[in-house]
Amino acid sequence: MDEAARTLRRQLRAQAKQLGDGESLHKPGAYEIKHLAEKLAYDQWHRLLFARYLLENNLLISPEHGVAVSLDDCEELAPSLKLKDAWAVAARFAAKELPEIFRADDPAGAVELAVNDRQPLIALVTGLAVEVFTASDSLGWCYQFWQAEKKDEVNAAGNKIGADELPAVTQLFTEDYMVNFLLDNTLGAWHAGKVLAARPDLAKTAASEAELRQAVALPGCPWTYLRFIQSADGAWAPAAGTFDGWPRNAKELKCLDPCMGSGHFVVAMFQRVVALRIAEEGLDEAEAVAAAVGENLFGLELDPRCTQIGAFNLALAAWRRVGHCVLPAMNVTCSGLAPNAKRADWLKLAGGDDRLERGMGRLYASFSDAPVLGSLINPRADEGDLVVAAFHELQPLLEKALTQETGDDTVHELAVTARGVARAAEILAGRFTLVATNVPYLGRGKQDDILQSFCERNHPDSAADLATCFVERSLDFCGESGTSALVTPQNWLFLKTYKQLRKSLLEDVEWNVVARLGSGAFATIGGEVVNVVLLVHSKVKPSSNFELTAIDASEPRNPEEKSSALLLGPTLRPSQAAQR
Question: How far apart are CA 474 and CA 33, in angstroms?
Answer without folding.
Answer: 35
